[in-house]
Design brief:
It is a single chain. The N and C termini lie far apart (about 55 Å). This protein has four helices and nine strands; from the N terminus they run ββαββββααβββα. It has a single domain (about 10-180), classed as Ubiquitin-like (UB roll) (Roll). The chain has helices at about 30-45, 95-100, 115-125, 175-180, and strands at about 10-15, 20-25, 50, 55, 65-70, 80, 145-150, 155, 160. The strands form three sheets. It has a five-stranded mixed β-sheet with strand order 2-1-7-5-6, with helices on one face. A two-stranded antiparallel sheet has the order 3-4. It is of the alpha+beta class. It is globular and about 70 Å long. The longest helix is centred in the first third of the chain and has 15 residues, at about 30-45.
Length: about 190
C-alpha cells in the first residue's frame, strides 16, 4: 500500500462500519479497488487479531463492498451500493444513454469535454475491468461511505441471518452518547 501525502486535491473519506470510522486520504483519481485495498490494509494494521467488532476480516479487498448515503443530509434514508464498475447511480443510466443517442456526433481535435473527459481520466488511472475513480463516481472530500464485506452474516438470538442489500451496520453518534446524558433534569 502506498501512502498518500495530503495535498490540496487529496480527498479525506470517512469509511464507516458499526461504531468505527476509518479516515483515509486518497487521490481523486484512485480506483475503487485501490480504495478497498487501502481500507483493508488500514483495518488489518489497527486490528491485528483479524476481527472488527467480533467479525472476522475478509480475505481480499474484492470481498469489501462500499456504499454512499442516499441523502447526505438525512442518514435515515439509507445507503446506496457503489458497484465496482458503476459510474452512475441506479436509474440514471437510461437517461444518459438516451441523451448520448440524441446528441450530434462531434468532429475535430482537442481535449474531450464533459463525460468524455471523465472517461479519458478513468482510462489513464491504471484501473482495470472498468473500475472507476473517485472523481468519476462523484465522491467528494469529507464524504461518509459505509463498508461491509460480501457474504457477511449477522448473529441475532442464536440464529444466523444473511444481511440484505439495504442493511449496512453503521451506528451514528447521538448527542446523549457524546455527553453521557441520561435524562438529567427532564420533567415528565
Amino acid at each position: 500500500m502506498a501512502s498518500t501525502k495530503p495535498t490540496p486535491s487529496t480527498l479525506t473519506l470517512r469509511l464507516k462500519f458499526h461504531r468505527t470510522s476509518v479516515l483515509l486520504h486518497v487521490d481523486p483519481i484512485l480506483s475503487i479497488s485501490a480504495l478497498k485495498a487501502d481500507l483493508l490494509h488500514a483495518i488489518r494494521e489497527t486490528h491485528p487479531d483479524g476481527k472488527l467488532h467480533g467479525r472476522p476480516l475478509p480475505a481480499s479487498p474484492s470481498d469489501l463492498q462500499l456504499a454512499r448515503l442516499v441523502d447526505p443530509a438525512d442518514p435515515a434514508q439509507g445507503w446506496q451500493l457503489i458497484a465496482d464498475g458503476d459510474s452512475t447511480p441506479e436509474g440514471e443510466e437510461e437517461d444518459e444513454e438516451a441523451a448520448e443517442a440524441a446528441a450530434p456526433k462531434k468532429k475535430g481535435r482537442g481535449r474531450p469535454k464533459g463525460k468524455d473527459a471523465a472517461a479519458a481520466a478513468d482510462s489513464g488511472n491504471g484501473s482495470s475491468n472498468g473500475d472507476k475513480s473517485m472523481k468519476s463516481l462523484g465522491i467528494k472530500d469529507g464524504m461518509a461511505l459505509a463498508f461491509r464485506w460480501a457474504g457477511e452474516a449477522q448473529q441475532r438470538d442464536g440464529e444466523t441471518e444473511t444481511l440484505e442489500w439495504e442493511d449496512w451496520d453503521v451506528k451514528w453518534p447521538h448527542f446523549e452518547d457524546t455527553f453521557n446524558l441520561e435524562d438529567e433534569g427532564m420533567v415528565e
